[in-house]
TrEMBL record, chains A, B:
Residues 1-165 form the MoaB/Mog domain. HAMAP family: CinA_B (MF_00226_B). Pfam families: CinA (PF02464), CinA_KH (PF18146), MoCF_biosynth (PF00994). This is CinA-like protein. Belongs to the CinA family. It comes from the Bacteria. It comes from Hymenobacter antarcticus.
Length: 432, 432
């Protein structure tokens, strides 16, 4: 249950419920309903009454701030027929926070230490509003602040461990396999019989996000020993079937996986970008520590810059156009030389909504990878509108980059992967 | 009411409810509750029963797909005691869609044209699952697909106009003023008396998003003529008080507003980026038509690139370090020359989590603007973690850029704005 008018009117999107749902699912609890309600006391009470009828545990966020529209703990005190009392350890914690930031403490801040008399206080290590745990006629209610990082800290520190203990939840094991370069339905086809043969206590979930699919195996206790070991034993078949699309066997990003490959091979990288306008560089540098392998980029939107900074030949531009495999190959090779890097990738495309030529339609993107011994290029036609075309182009060139780095890493031999080109964007789902 | 297990377990974040809440708020309807429920028939029915007790209108999305876990219309037919019947116009529409994409049509696709006998069908121009409008014992239920762009189209084409007509909602007027560069609470302070003096039928909402605050004036009918004109007459005072932070008087982005200023002044732009790693270029090029003024960028992560590509002096790097106003000024000036642009902005910083030096802490970012007649620089210390530090640095340099372009545009005279520096990041709210 999330509380606040700002949620009802879409001024804030309720990401708290999504986080709580993810975490509850991981420990094997079933989520019955998510409700977002207004800041009005009578409507909060009505929602509490309904929630306790459908669930054993009601997690509540929001309405614990210091201002007058923050009603939650007052409503809860009245709902449980009790009153607010001062919680000394919380008061000292709030005082410490204000001292640390050297801010004057107002009476409203002091009131953060008032809690309903019947609650157990959950220490909020990262904020002034404490969590509150209530047990009332067989139902657990937990009230947490709406600030996402405070809620997350309270969930992790207190709420999830307590729920696991309270409900004697059998240990659940998770394995995550991250893939990129093939849509959900195509992946499913390739591993259909493997999935059908999974033991009853091990479930597979496909979690697609933009241009990537996370596979999550969830194993529940079947009374036999070494659940995790038996789950790990399922992976070799998966690697055999879809190994070329797997970029990690843990939660991570494609750009972080690329960073690890570059570090392992002691290679430096740079980019030459036209249609992606710097997004590929931004993603590569979003990884902490990327300065160890990322040197720089040339964003060459205008053809002058492609020629002057990247050494693309005027003849190439004249003959094939800026959006062509020929141009993007020269861009990647030019970036290698110009930035003094081992590996470079390049993009050029017509992001849209305008810019089509006689021979190239809006959404045409060309990508290239160059490492000094070889240059590989691709051409795709996308049709998702400007912003998504740019996102897909960046995701695709990073996918190409990772596949090349991984292949060379394994065998020293480059395996041409032209055959994959046709399926990369043929997934009918808008989430590739 | 949004339907689907994927919402309960956070595999998909419920943005549909946020959109519906925004649109309902705009036409003056009060949103009572948002509920997300599972794919189970009995739980959908329980939620319908509770929803009709608190609201006159229940909007439902999800569960209208062609697969067997898509239960919504079956549940609704049973809930209303009716049966599914074939809707001929919908069948023809579905057939047309499959013909257009040259795909074989399966029986499950044909079933998209089955609807409960008591509904009015709402034509879905952009998908195969129609919307359904039910009126049952004084309550309106509307079922729409969960695919966001289909739901949005149905809301705009059918649902919102029908609701406005049905409830005789008085016309509501909205004015939006977009600001960047000053936090919500500081803005509020500057316009407090103006806000307090607003007529009773005109409300102001502060809608903060990352590094920007949207001000929305909502005027409801007071029986007097020319509501919109009277609202527009309120803006001059707002412009006088906070004009330097206003970048548009309509819904738009900061980068789009910058694009308009560049086009109006016939100026070209490029960027030189270290800590932002290409994000500033990516944002500038996210605007359709940006190739008319954006030429390119140098992402200079490594100091070699700062020297070779941007002409930063070795002595400057040695004396002041890469993260310094001196370096970032030379970067901006170098980008102007190198990229052949009229205006350039530059960033350099320690995004974190590591990289602090003896004199510079993590989160230090330096920004510069150069236009040939002047170079302006800023230094801030941010503390929001790597990803947000990068986002804030990009937002800040775009804010600096816009302010400079706007000032010069108005008067031809550059007004030094050093005094503002201290407040830009002092807002205590994580959403600046």
């Amino acid at each position: 249950m999330t509380i606040g008018d700002e949620l009802l009117y879409g001024q804030v999107i309720d990401t708290n419920s999504a986080f709580m749902g993810q975490e509850l699912g991981k420990i094997g609890l079933r989520v019955r309903q998510i409700s977002s309600v207004s800041d009005r006391a009578d409507e909060i009470v009505a929602a509490l009454d309904q929630a306790r009828q459908r669930a054993q545990v009601v997690l509540i966020t929001g309405g614990l701030g210091p201002t007058k529209d923050d009603l939650t703990k007052h409503v809860l005190a009245r709902y449980f027929g009790t009153e607010l009392v001062l919680h000394e350890p919380t008061l000292r914690h709030v005082e410490e926070i204000f001292q640390r930031f050297n801010r004057p403490m107002l009476d409203v801040n002091r009131q953060q230490a008032l809690v309903p008399a019947n609650c157990e206080v959950l220490h909020n290590a990262v904020g002034t509003a404490p969590g509150m745990w209530f047990s009332d006629q067989g139902t657990i209610f937990v009230s947490m602040p709406g600030v996402p990082f405070e809620m997350k800290r309270l969930m992790t520190d207190h709420v999830l461990p307590r729920l696991q203990a309270l409900f004697h939840i059998a240990p659940i094991e998770h394995l995550v396999v991250m893939t990129a370069g093939l849509g959900e339905s195509f992946l499913a086809q390739k591993i259909e019989d493997w999935e059908d043969a999974l033991p009853a206590n091990i479930k597979l979930a496909y979690l697609p996000s933009f241009g990537a699919v996370r596979l999550r195996l969830t194993g529940s206790d079947d009374g036999q020993p070494n659940l995790r070991g038996r789950m790990l034993a399922l992976l070799p078949v998966l690697r055999e079937r879809i190994g070329e699309y797997i970029f990690a066997e843990e939660e991570t990003t494609l750009e972080a996986a690329i960073g690890r490959l570059l570090l392992a091979r002691n290679l430096t990288i740079g980019t030459a970008e036209s249609c992606t306008g710097g997004l590929v560089a931004h993603r590569l540098t979003s990884v902490a520590g990327s300065s160890a392998y990322f040197r720089g980029s040339i964003v060459a939107y205008h053809n002058d810059i492609k020629q002057e900074e990247l050494g693309v030949q005027a003849a190439t531009l004249a003959q094939f156009g800026a959006v062509s495999e020929a141009t993007v190959r020269e861009m990647a090779e030019g970036a290698r030389r110009r930035l003094g890097v081992d590996v470079a990738v390049a993009t050029s495309g017509i992001a849209g909504p305008t810019g089509a030529t006689d021979t190239k339609q809006v959404g045409t993107v060309c990508l290239a990878y160059a490492d000094g011994t070889q240059t590989i290029s691709r051409e795709y036609v996308l049709d998702r509108g400007r912003a998504l075309n740019v996102e897909y182009a960046a995701q695709s060139v990073l996918t190409l980059l990772r596949q090349q780095l991984a292949q060379e890493n394994k065998s020293g031999v480059v395996i041409a992967s032209e055959a994959k080109q046709s399926v990369l964007f043929s997934a009918p789902n808008p989430i590739m």
